[in-house]
Amino acid sequence: MRLRGIIRRIRYFRIIAVLSGIHRKLGWMRTSSKHIKVDDEENVIIGAQKVGPPALPSIIIRLLLSILFLLVITLSIAYVLYKPPTVIINYLQWKYPDVVFHFPLPSSQKYVALTLDDVPSSETTKILDLLQRFKAKATFFVIGRQISDYPQLLTRIHNEGHEIGIHGWADEPSYKLSSVELEHQIKKIETMLPLNPDRFKWFRPGSGWFTTDMIEKLKSMGYKIALGNIYPHDPQIGFPKINAAHVLSMIKPGGVIIMHDRRPYSSEQLELVLQGLATRGWRAQTLSKVQEIKADIVAGKLLPLN
């Protein structure tokens, strides 16, 4: 009997040793007990709970959520750049009073300033014909090196009551130019413009970026920077219907439209914009004219639409 008891004890300890070995190998598993009550009797259920590395689906879900978050942020920034809210435009106008972003007018004054960059080009004649047809006016920002190819167009722009501003000698970011080079370019372009002692001196920096040094240099030369608040990004988006729809969706009294010459679709998208403005009862004018209307309103004069 003693021998049998000893054998049973040895077998018992061997089983315990095997179970302990399994437990050590599966160290990332642990047992937990859960008490449940069935028929007024308490029972204990033993279950295994994993405490090791997270499951693969959990990692994928976290990764997808991170990508979704970044996508939402990126799209939000892109939307603000594409359709800047009025509050941002108002802040920029307050922050940089020497730069024109818009000329806010009362809702009864359905005027907008129409501006065209990268002038002159082979499309400019079509653009001038459209402006004449719709009885609209615009401010043309010229690139100096393009003037010699179309000298007669600047004369026509001036003779038909439009306005000429300077965009730079080349299609390049103006903020990269030194003050000396910027002044040199402007003075060189001035010699190529039609004589007009009453010309308001507008400058639109290439790429749309400016610096405080640029503002001060231009002020010393009698120039004012003009940007805008309605911009369809037409150099990058070559779909005239989309660009025109974007412009018309952003129209507000005293808004400044930025569009571009020199593209094969420039005249087509402008025609759609002018047609839409006319249908809605809006008048497209030069920067100086809308600035004058704004000044008259500040002085207490509300002008009629005709």
UniProtKB/TrEMBL annotation:
One GO BP: chitin catabolic process
UniProt keyword Transmembrane present: yes
EC number: 3.5.1.41
Domain NodB homology: residue ranges: 110-285
Keyword Zinc listed: no
Entry's transmembrane regions: 59-82
Enzyme class: hydrolase
Keywords: Carbohydrate metabolism, Chitin degradation, Cobalt, Membrane, Polysaccharide degradation, Transmembrane, Transmembrane helix
InterPro entries xref list: Glyco_hydro/deAcase_b/a-brl (IPR011330), NODB_dom (IPR002509), Polysacc_deacetylase_ArnD (IPR050248)
Catalytic activities: [(1->4)-N-acetyl-beta-D-glucosaminyl](n) + n H2O = chitosan + n acetate
Cofactor requirement: Co(2+)
Molecular functions per Gene Ontology: chitin deacetylase activity
UniProt-recorded name of the protein: chitin deacetylase
Organism of provenance: Golovinomyces cichoracearum
